[in-house]
Amino acid sequence: MSEDSQRTAEQAAAFQKIWVDSVTKTMQTLFTFNPEAVPPEIARQIRRGILEALAKSWDEFMRSPQFLEGMKQWMDQAVTFRKMSNDFVATARSEMQATSRDDIDTVMLTVRHMEKRILDRVDELATQVADLSNRVGHSPGNRQAAPANPARKRRRTPRQRQGAH
Is-contact 57 21, C-beta < 8 A? Predict the structure, then answer.
């Protein structure tokens, strides 16, 4: 047997031992109730015992070195797979002469910087306009009436219209 297959067999035996212990504890709990108790109390005791046994066995299982090692290997493989898939997609984009993710990220970052600079400049201009309005005596919320335009024709009243006919 190779070392990997022997290690896998040992891990499987450890998992099997945990499960056998869990089932044994559950069965022992089923048969350790008080005979003088009323039937609903017996059911509660059985349920509580089963849940406690399951909680203990799952706690032991999830804290076991075999489970933790298996989870570590699974996470390492998931990270490796993610890196490989990212590299594959980057290579495919490069082969098709398409834009890469880095290029798109760079363009987006540049646009965000430009947007921030423009908004900052607009804020500065708004402040300057408000200062100029205050110096002239016009507040933005209290505007004076616009001066009359002499070139504009005055409207005739209905009485004036009747007299013109």
Answer: yes
* 127 vs 135: CA distance, rounded Å: 12
Q: How big is the chain, counted in residues?
A: 165
Q: Give me Rg for the CA atoms of the chain.
A: 41
Q: Which amino acid is at 127?
A: T
Q: Helices 101-136 and 65-95 sit at what angle, rounded to 10 degrees?
A: 80
Residues 6+ apart with CB under 8 A from 100: 90, 93, 94
Both tokens of residue 127? 């402040």
Q: pLDDT tens digits for the chain (165 residues)?
A: 577 778 777 877 877 887 788 777 777 766 665 666 556 777 788 788 888 888 888 888 889 888 898 899 999 999 999 999 989 988 888 888 888 778 888 999 999 999 999 999 999 999 999 999 999 986 555 555 555 555 555 555 655 555 555
Residue 25: which residues within 8 A CB-CB, separation 6 or more?
Answer: 53, 56, 57
In DSSP terms, 135 is beta-bridged to none
CB 33 within 8 A of CB 42: yes
Query: How many other C-beta atoms lie within 10 A of the C-beta of residue 29?
Result: 19
